Amino acid sequence: MAIIICICLLDVMLTYFIKFLHVFIALGLLGLTVVCFALAGPHNLNKILRINKILLILTPFALITGTLLVYPKQYTFHTPWIMAAYGLLGVFCSAIILALFLQEKIAKRWVWKIIYFLLLGILTMIVHDAVTKTSFL
Amino acid sequence: MLYFTFKILHILTATLLLTSVGVGCYQWYLSKNKYLLQIQTWTRIIPLALFQLLSGFTMISLKQYSLSEIWIEASLISFLIAIGSWFSFLYFIRAQTFFLIVCGSAVLSMIFFMASMVH
User: Fold this and answer.
1) A58 touching chain B per CB within 8 A
2) How far is A96 from chain B (nearest CA, A)?
3) Could you say which DSSP state residue B8 is in?
4) How crowded is the C-beta side of B113, counted as CA atoms within 13 Å?
5) Each residue's pLDDT tens digit in chain A (137 positions)?
């Protein structure tokens, strides 16, 4: 009986910890995208390339922690806002990979400002869906 | 609807606040110029932190949570520790690294309690 209670408590604590990690990584993704938006331009190329690589590393962790939270929070993978979140995160990840390849080819500052603004918009939509539990799309 | 709007704004301003703190600390680490960090604190970090408090209390009143709930008390205590240790880091010359670590730990625990809403 005591072992079952301990297992249940561990399960609850693990869910809280995974949710904390998920929120922390999400804040990190948003924050780093804001920094890229602020720095966008040919003069800060090296810094932006480094930040884009960090974004690319953080995105799968956001995906994994989000996936691990689906069942403990009593949702399914067919929930509309969860499906939208996966799609939007896929678009975000693809855009970051594209940005890594095109960084040196596009020199115009305003183009990169628009791209990072759109990426911020994508992340804001994911946050909106997660908060309201409904899909923006 | 109003609650969700405030919650989204709360998350977005938290991002801006943490980004300002992170960028400020990075610039301080490179240049060891505290004056810039002090200006950033009064122009960006404090206004954003005040907005965080206001939006947080607005959401608490909209949802009619009790202020005695564990996660709210723990978040407020962590917030006060974070603010206190940040000012200590800025204005005291000794033990800067210690105050920065305390500030970081307080922020992490605040995020933990608010994300989990532990009862």
Assistant:
1) no
2) 19
3) H
4) 17
5) 777 777 777 777 888 999 999 999 999 999 999 999 998 877 788 888 899 999 999 999 999 999 999 888 888 888 999 999 999 999 999 999 988 888 777 777 888 888 899 999 999 999 999 988 887 66
Of B18, B116, B118, the CB nearest to A27: B18
Which of B4, B15, B108 is facing A34, going by the closest CB pair? B15
Interface touch A20/B118, C-beta < 8 Å? no
Interface membership of A134 toward B (CB under 8 Å): no
Three-state secondary-structure class, residue A1: coil
Structure tokens at B42: 């009064």
**Distance from C-alpha of B103 to C-alpha of B23, rounded to nearest angstrom:** 15
ipTM value: 0.86
User: Tokens 């943490």 appear where?
Assistant: B18
Tally Cβ neighbours within 10 Å of residue B75. Answer: 20
Neighbours of A99 (CB within 10 A): 21
